[in-house]
Design brief:
This protein has five helices and four strands. The protein has 121 residues and is an alpha+beta fold. The protein has one domain: Glutaredoxin (3-Layer(aba) Sandwich). Helix 1 packs parallel to helix 3. It is globular. The mean pLDDT is 84. The chain binds glutathione.
Length: 121
């Protein structure tokens, strides 16, 4: 089963959204958002940057929330989007990103209302 390490009060949120859209079973391994709490040897082995989120899919360990989402989008299932056009639109969303989390969250809610599940990419 897919395992997502993170906390919903962080960028983990966008991966949780994506996972919910895929309908794939997953386990959220809830971590702290505090820098000091992400320094355990076990977690650093998964993500040497000591950041969340991190996705574990068998042998594959991925970090960077949008890399995770684009990975999920290329797996078979309802969110499968292997076409250049779809992935291009998804990357547009990535480059539109801004550091202000609260503002980003509000924009995502609005995007979701306008675009539906595709906005999760
Ligand atoms: N670009 C990364 C950013 C990851 C990141 O900075 N995550 C924050 C939470 S939103 C974190 O792990 N903070 C803990 C810290 O900075 O020590 C992504 O999108 O996954």
């Amino acid at each position: 089963m897919l395992k997502l390490y993170g906390n919903p009060r962080s960028r983990t949120e966008r991966c949780l959204w994506m996972l919910e859209e895929t309908g794939e079973p997953y386990e959220l391994v809830r971590t702290s958002v505090r820098t000091e709490d992400l320094q355990s040897a076990a977690y650093l082995q998964l993500n040497p940057n000591a950041r969340i989120p991190t996705l574990v899919d068998g042998e594959i360990v991925l970090w960077e929330s949008m890399a995770i989402n684009l990975y999920l989008a290329q797996r078979p299932g309802p969110m499968h989007s292997g076409s250049a056009a779809t992935l291009g639109l998804a990357r547009r969303g990535r480059f539109y990103d801004r550091p202000n989390h609260a503002g980003l969250h509000r924009r995502r809610i609005r995007s979701r209302e306008r675009l539906g599940p595709a906005a999760a990419l």
